[in-house]
Amino acid sequence: MMRERIKELFGKTKVDAIALRTFPNNPDASFPYFSGLPSGFLTNNFLLLGKKKKPLVVRTVLDPEVKGKKLRIKTVKKRKEMESLLKKELKGKKIGVNKSIYTISSFKALQKALPKKRFVDISEQLMETRNIKSNAEIEKIAKAAKITEKVLRKVPRLFRKGITEKQLALKIEILLREQTGESLAFPVIVANGRNSTFPHHVPSDKKIRKGLILIDCGARYKGYCGDLTRMFSVGRPTKQEQKVYSAVFEAKKIGEELSVEGASASQIFKKVSSFLKKSTGQKLVHGLGHGLGLETHDAPCGFLPDSKTVLGRNMVLTVEPAVYLKGFGIRIEDDIVVKTGKCRKLSNAPKALISL
């Protein structure tokens, strides 16, 4: 599988060798994808890919021990050793790199260390290789989604009078981590009342009061992400809240039904947005969904009005229609696998608001 991935990548690029890098505060999902090592296992290293040799992991003495029959592994103690090894291993003039993860200074340092090489940005091609998920990848994402769904079902038991957004978010985070022993796919979002109108709200010290709560979270299982959003109501929801929830739920259903092999992602976005405009007076203000995998926002490019993505079998995406009004917002999100004729749903949101 790994050799096939590398072969596909070289087929998409016109480079002689590839040097992938992961940084402590900016890991590259391509590193575990092409090495087979756990996500986040190494945080400041190189993975060198050639057309014929086994991939080479270059680690420092500070890093965990690395083992792998399909890998070559070399350990360096000093920066000069690292530079010498890169010069020796990176054959040819044109070297492919994921420029998107480099800072200006770190990229200049790479150019200075290897002045005779010409670096080519292959970040787009790296993402493209992750468009279609293998069966093993799909099952990991499915597991992450099921764990997330299981934890979200426990929210009514976690809720208590006077709890803050931050406190509830922490309780959810602990449960997610206990299930997998891994980091989260992304920080938990808990947004109550007016805060639910901000799509990327950060949980605050605000005590949760009567009204709606939007909770967006995701477990990570063996490096792969789940991503679900559920809506809860403290007290009886208003007729308007119930009406908007029903419309958003129906919009999600339409998006899922349209998400089949060969469908246009942009056309699906436009049809769902048009439905929401007619039923609620509000169009989609962000994407209908995104790719899901080693990253929360993974390949492929999701449902956007200008997306050129044509859905392919075994692409994994989220479907998350939303409406944001003056006093509250409603977003419902599930994870799907694109298939022929009908998508495979990895999670199932309830048809009605969940009362607390």
Describe this structure in words.
It is a single chain. By secondary structure, this protein is of the alpha+beta class. The chain has two domains: 2-128, Creatine Amidinohydrolase, Chain A, domain 1; 135-355, Creatine Amidinohydrolase (Alpha-Beta Complex). It is built from ten helices and 19 strands. The strands form six sheets. A six-stranded mixed β-sheet has the order 4-3-2-1-5-6. Helix 6 crosses helix 8 (165-180) and helix 9 packs antiparallel against helix 10 (265-280). The longest helix is centred in the last third of the chain and has 20 residues, at 239-258. It is globular. The relative contact order is 0.12.
Low-confidence stretches: none
Mean pLDDT: 95
Query: What is the strand content?
Result: 15-25%
Helix percentage: 25-40%
- Please outline the major beta sheet: 6 strands, mixed
Between the first and last Cα atoms, what is the distance in angstroms?
Answer: 46 Å
Number of domains: 2
Pfam families: Creatinase_N, Peptidase_M24
Protein name: Aminopeptidase P family protein
Organism: Candidatus Iainarchaeum sp
Domain Peptidase M24: 139-339
